[in-house]
Amino acid sequence: MSKVIRLGTRDSELALWQANTVKDQLQALGHTVKLVPVKSTGDLILDKPLYELGITGVFTKTLDVAMINGDIDIAVHSMKDVPTALPKGIVKAAVLKRGNYMDIMAFKDNEEFLGSRDAVIATGSLRRQAQWLNRYPTHTVVDLRGNVNSRLEKLYNNEWNGAIFAAAGLERIGLEPENTIGLTWMLPAPAQGAIMVVAMEDNEEVREACAQLNHEETDTCVTLEREFLRELEGGCSAPIGALAYINKENIVTLKGVLLNVDGSKKLETELTAPLGKHQNLGIDCAKTILARGGRRLMTELASAGTEINIFSTKKLTPQQQLSLNLSVNADSDDFIKINFNRISPIVLKKEHKNVVFTSKNAVEAVLASRDVSELDFENIYCVGRKTRRFIKNKFGKITHYENNAKDLANHLVEFIDGTEVTYFHGNLSLEELPTILEENNITVNAVEAYRTKLSGKSIPESVKGIMFFSPSNVESYLKENSADKVAYCIGETTAKAAREHFTAVKVAKIPTVESVIELVNADYED
Questions:
Q1: Edge-to-edge strands of the sheet including 120-122?
Q2: Is CATH 3.40.50.300 the right assignment for the domain spanning 215-305?
Q3: 3-state class of 200 per DSSP?
Q4: Which residue in 52, 390, 458, 501 has the fewest CB atoms around it within 10 Å?
Q5: 338-454 belongs to which CATH class?
Q6: Do residues 420 and 446 lie in contact, with contact meaning Cβ atoms separated by under 8 Å?
Q7: Where are the domains of the chain?
């Protein structure tokens, strides 16, 4: 080829290393190559995390424009920075043999912070941040931007414990610090460690020259990883990791992960296929993630920063959060805190013919004071399915349960064996059950097993509905918030407390969190 190939590249040390690698390989094949350095938006804007720049391919866009304008013939990129959908007219010309795909942790003094509750870790990647916080949820992650050299300098000039880097980047420019830890548990970005060459689709001569550099195994693996990414519709702003590899038996394995930003939600998958029948692995892995709650999680990521419309006064589990419809942008927090009381050994050593619990908290408080094997409870009565299930798991038996305190009291009046009960309760428990029993000549020995502390907070004005799970939840919420919203209640007792303040009150069919979620979903259909 007689034409000089103009190779566009960012002018950072790492980008130039990659460009020179491509240049050397092309020149070894007899081609003439000239480097054309170009500044990218990602290099120029260093005061914001990548995901806040608002565009994908932040490190490739400037080079794409230069190529479309005819200023360069090919461009060289770290493949993990390249959007899964290339601009019209630009195509992949070659993928070089992959380097080290791992992430590594560089640290200053020692590794003791890994076992500490508090530590500060620096990274500009949401994927690294999410996976780190999933593993070390009490640590703090701070933003880290700039080229490799400047990021290392920032690590040593700040009170941080460590910073996360792509191993390949440090190795390629000979800057790997003395103190590093390979993060073998952290899935890399799709195509991390791979170098990609792109060219104009209609430039057949240049494409033929570059095709000789293509490494087939690397190309196969990173293609699957990028298909996984594309199917999830994730870009720089989604914490997505993927890694494909081919073993000696020609079996292709693809691992994928999707998380939320704080790492509290994590969905993983791993699929294998023989080489030659591997083409759908990327899409199949993505569909597995989406089917297990990934669609909801991607919607949450996309709607981050949008207005919250539902608030739960009980902290929802990741699975409960994922079961909300896509049109629900929910937040949650515990509006009551429970502290167990020390129950007198004299009380717990006694034989109790009839024991009554109206909450799981009371059962847990009793068991916190004495082992179940030391308790002599003949008949156990309770309120709520969750409490019944917990008692059955711990005691192996239960005499009777009802969905609310009033119904249980009426049952006891009619069917109790004897005329006395021991009632374990909280400081804010309603008087309905003991009142009914005492009115019917049943002696109630009340034992305060736990104390409930109201710990509500002010919620955003955008919230249209509140999920309540106890009268105490309602009381705590109203300390700092208005009642001009829809109250979604777990049961009739909670609904009764809500109706004293809220105009719109809806009650779950059965007293479970999932049933309250069904109430919300019915009002916010996708």
A1: 140-142, 120-122, 162-166, 103-107, 180-182
A2: no
A3: strand
A4: 458
A5: alpha beta
A6: no
A7: 1-96+192-214, 103-182, 215-305, 306-335+455-522, 338-454
Name the band, by pLDDT with cuts 50, 70 and 90, for residue 51.
very low
Active site residue 81: yes
Q: Which of 43, 73, 81, 284 is an active site residue?
A: 81
28-34 LR contacts (CB < 8 Å, sep 24+):
29/209, 29/212, 30/1, 31/1, 31/5, 31/209, 32/1, 32/2, 32/3, 32/4, 32/5, 33/4, 33/5, 33/7, 34/4, 34/5, 34/6, 34/7
What superfamily would CATH give domain 103-182? Periplasmic binding protein-like II (3.40.190.10)
HSE-up of residue 312 (Cα within 13 Å, Cβ side):
22
Model confidence at 303: pLDDT above 70: no
CB 477 within 8 A of CB 313: yes
Closest CA to 67 of 201, 221, 192, 162: 201
Confidence of residue 417 (pLDDT cuts 50, 70, 90): confident
Domain covering 306-335+455-522: architecture: 3-Layer(aba) Sandwich (3.40)
Residues recorded for the chain: 526
- Helix residue ranges, H only, 181-317: 204-211, 216-232, 281-289, 295-302
Strand-strand pairing, 103-107 and 376-383: unpaired
Domains 1-96+192-214 and 103-182 share a fold: yes
Strands (E), 89-232: 90-95, 103-107, 120-122, 140-142, 162-166, 180-182, 195-200
